[in-house]
């Protein structure tokens, strides 16, 4: 083996020690290492690609920083470069890591915390996840939860999970030997008391599913309210705007919930709804008719509101006689078509690769459908007398759709980007000479969610759903993965 190849193998082997802090698995087995190259002089470059563009920047930063440390420590490496690709904060993260700056500094003071605290926090969560991994088989075999209090690590059969637990504890400076209790507080290391066992196990289970409890599209019934809450009561049926907002900043006062400077996104940056209960704010609750079944509308809380938001913004452009193209008649697109039909008199053209999706689009209000087989831009031009569409709503925006979408717009037309993943390359001369607009869209406002619920309750926007009990979350994800779910899978906690 040549020297660079040998160094490359060593780097890849060493990278198994770098874990996704959220999933607690090596980045190598998760497929995040896009490439690893080594020059004859020992200059190594590793490129990382995470599955989502919006993966939390703190997670991304930790992985890039850990990768940098591992690559530069590998035997035979003269210089190390780590590049994060296709991430919205890639430039800042790459620059920060290259300069060996702390996380907070590279984000100009906007970061949640310093790197070490963040890492410790992830380690504690990983510890809890590993604890649950060890307790689950014991509980399944009939062990009483309280009997686990007396157990020590030495009494457990050897397993990878146990090794991981010991390693996490050691990294945190917590007891990890054979006589250490199985259940300890992840911060103080103190043995968990008898009374606290059920709660401790619940927490461990929640982190076992994910470092945050997932679930950002939520509806349900109010179970409890704080003392200052006046707008909703226990028992109310509600759907939740996905971002509890501050209500005080300029964006909030303008009704632009998504641009709030002090909001959270449960399920993405804090604990979400794949649980018995979810904590949110009164400002996020949209009250529903008590007859509404939350499971029928929950997916409107993000997918629905996003499609509605784009259509709502485009309404002034969609007067009678205009044409609107919808690219992508999938999960969001099929809601967008229903919103267009309910709110406007525009002529709807739907473009999709899948003939079945186009059949559904026709039933939902599409006047024309176009199979995306390579001739879709021409087809739209033909259907619009050569002009192009006044508005294009692009729910795909990758794999070429982003170029087609802009090409389908008429002079003074507007291209609305709702999907993401691609890159738009357009000569600026084309933009000015034809006065065409490119419009970004992210989720939607509280008022838009409330409006969408009016449409839903009138039966003008409906969702295809299939429900599963909360405990069958893994099965639901497998079914989604295998394409066995038409529409959205809904998890319902059993009370
Ligand atoms: Zn705000």
Write the SSE topology:
Layout: H1 3-14, E1 19-20, E2 25-26, E3 33-38, E4 43-49, H2 57-73, E5 79-85, H3 90-98, H4 103-106, H5 115-140, H6 160-171, H7 197-209, E6 219-221, E7 237-240, H8 250-253, E8 285-287, H9 294-297, H10 303-314, E9 323-327, H11 333-343, E10 347-352, H12 355-364, E11 368-371, H13 376-383, E12 389-394, H14 401-407, E13 409-417, H15 428-434, E14 437-440, H16 446-457, E15 465-469, H17 473-481, E16 488-492
Parallel strand pairs: 4-5, 9-10, 9-12, 10-11, 12-13, 13-14, 15-16
Antiparallel strand pairs: 1-2, 3-4, 6-7, 7-8
The structure holds zinc ion (ZN).
Residues 245-246, 248-249, 251-252, 260-262 line the site of zinc ion.
Characterize the structure shown.
- The chain has four domains: 3-114, Fe-S cluster assembly (FSCA) (GMP Synthetase, Chain A, domain 3, 2-Layer Sandwich), CATH 3.30.300; 117-207, no CATH class; 219-302, Medium-chain alcohol dehydrogenases, catalytic domain (Quinone Oxidoreductase, Chain A, domain 1); 304-442, NAD(P)-binding Rossmann-like Domain (Rossmann fold, 3-Layer(aba) Sandwich), CATH 3.40.50.
- A six-stranded parallel beta sheet has the order 11-10-9-12-13-14, with helices on both faces. A three-stranded mixed beta sheet has the order 3-4-5.
- Strand 15 (465-469), helix 17 (473-481) and strand 16 form a beta-alpha-beta unit.
- Helix 5 (115-140) runs antiparallel to helix 6 (160-171), helix 5 crosses helix 7 (197-209) and helix 11 runs parallel beside helix 12.
- 36% of the residues lie in helices and 16% in strands.
- The protein has 495 residues and is an alpha/beta fold.
- The model has no long low-confidence stretch (mean pLDDT 88).
- The site of zinc ion (ZN) has 9 residues, from helix 8.
